[in-house]
Amino acid sequence: MWSWILAAIGVTGIFFVGRKTIWGWLVLLLNECLWIIYAITTEQYGFIFAAIAYATVYIKSFIHWKRDDGFPDSSQLEILCYNCGGMYKVGYEAVRECPKCLKD
User: Fold this and answer.
1) What pairs with residue 96 in β-bridges?
2) DSSP-based three-state secondary structure for 78
3) Which of 5, 30, 77, 103 is 20 to 30 A removed from 24 (C-alpha atoms)?
4) How big, in percent rounded to 5, are the helix, strand and coil portions of the chain?
5) Range 73-85 burial, b when 16+ CB lie within 10 A, else e
6) CB atoms within 10 A of CB 70
7) Please, which residues have CB within 8 angstroms of residue 44's CB and are 6 or more apart in sequence?
C-alpha cells in the first residue's frame, strides 16, 4: 500500500514540476524522505540509495531550472514597437523594425 501512495505522490510532484511551480520540487523532495522511511521500515535499504540519488537529481535540476527561469531564450522575447504600439517577437536574428511597420 505504501509504495502505491509514494508512487502517487511522485507523479503529483512531476505534474507540478511540469507546470513550472516550486511546489513540484518540494513534493518530490518530501516524497524521497518518505521513501527513506519506507526503506528503513521495510528493511529494504536499496531504496535509501535510490532516494538519495533522486533527491540529488531533483536539487540539481531545480538549481538549473531556477537559473534559467529568469532568462528566456531570444525566441521568446517580445519587443514593443514605438511606432505602432504593437508587440512582435524578436527571434534569433536581429530585428530592427516591427514587421507590421515594414508592411505599411
Assistant:
1) none
2) strand
3) 77
4) 65, 5, 25
5) eeeeeeeeeeeee
6) 6
7) 38
Domain ranges of the chain: 2-69, 74-103
CA dihedral 76, 79, 80, 81 (to 10 degrees): -130
pLDDT, tens only, 16-69? 888 878 888 899 999 999 999 999 999 999 999 999 999 999 999 888 887 766
State the Cα–Cα distance between residues 49 and 83, nearest whole angstrom.
Answer: 60
Q: How far is CA 50 from CA 15, 32, 43, 66, in A?
A: 20, 9, 14, 24
Residue 32 grid coordinates? 524521497
Q: Please tell me whether the overall predicted TM-score, pTM, comes out greater than 0.85 for this model.
A: no
CA angle 74, 77, 78 (to 5 degrees): 145
